Amino acid sequence: MNAAHPASAPRRTPKIYWEDFHPGEVREFGAVTVRREDIIEFASRFDPQPFHLDDDAGRATPYGGLIASGWQTGSLAMRMMCDEYLLDAASLGSPGLEYLRWTAPVRPGDTLRMRLTVLATRVLKSRPTAGLVDTRWQLFNQRDEQVLDMRGYGMFARRTPQPD
């Protein structure tokens, strides 16, 4: 993935607020092809396990070849979310994840896409000007094999905060 990544993203006027997320909503997006060079570069910097760095070492594992770090896969998912909606949203960050699972290896040449499912939304009791969105993110490769399954929360400003 050769995405440009400036040191700081330009500030945008939000177009997406908490009210724009609806339980049951499913969005599909992204198409990122993972290059061998990107796998090795990421692993060299952040996860230098041999099966992320070397074809021969990868072949000697149950994976049968070079694979991307799960952390790289998660980073690619984050980038897809930013490109699809977060950079246009009134995002206030995230309090964390319920779970993160790497369900199949990502290999050089795989093309990944995202499925986002909104599970629930609610206004934050401690901060009524913001809401919480409970979301499941799944990444699939070009063979429709799920490679990542993650559930977490996003906080977003409300477009029209109402006193509760």
Explain what the structure shows.
The protein has helices spanning 36-46, 50-53, 55-59, 70-84; strands at residues 26-33, 96-102, 111-124, 127-140, 146-157. It has a 5-stranded antiparallel sheet, with helices on one face. It is 21% helix and 34% strand. It contains 4 helices and 5 strands, in the order βααααββββ. The longest helix is centred in the middle third of the chain and has 15 residues, at 70-84. Strand 3 (111-124) and strand 4 form a beta hairpin. The termini are far apart. The model is unreliable at 1-5 (pLDDT under 50). With 164 residues, it is α+β, with helices and mostly antiparallel strands. It has a single domain (20-157), classed as Hotdog Thioesterase (Thiol Ester Dehydrase, Chain A).
Blueprint of the fold:
Blueprint: E1 26-33, H1 36-46, H2 50-53, H3 55-59, H4 70-84, E2 96-102, E3 111-124, E4 127-140, E5 146-157
Antiparallel strand pairs: 1-3, 2-5, 3-4, 4-5
Defining traits:
5-stranded antiparallel beta sheet, alpha+beta, 21% helix, 164 residues, Thiol Ester Dehydrase, Chain A, disordered N terminus
End-to-end separation: 45 Å
Number of strands: 5
Secondary-structure element series: EHHHHEEEE
The CATH topology label is Thiol Ester Dehydrase, Chain A
Q: Strand order of the main beta sheet, please?
A: 1-3-4-5-2
From the coordinates shown, what is the CATH architecture?
Roll
Mean pLDDT: 93
What sort of overall outline do the alpha carbons produce when their principal axes are compared? Answer: elongated
Helix fraction, binned, reads 10-25%
Give the biggest beta sheet. 5 strands, antiparallel
Q: Uncertain runs with pLDDT below 50, 5 residues or more?
A: 1-5
Question: Briefly, what CATH class?
Answer: Alpha Beta
Class by SSE composition: alpha+beta
Backbone CA Rg: 18 Å
In DSSP terms, counting alpha (H) and pi (I) runs of 4 or more, how many helices?
4
Tally of separate domains: 1
According to CATH, the homologous superfamily is Hotdog Thioesterase
Portion in beta strands: 25-35%
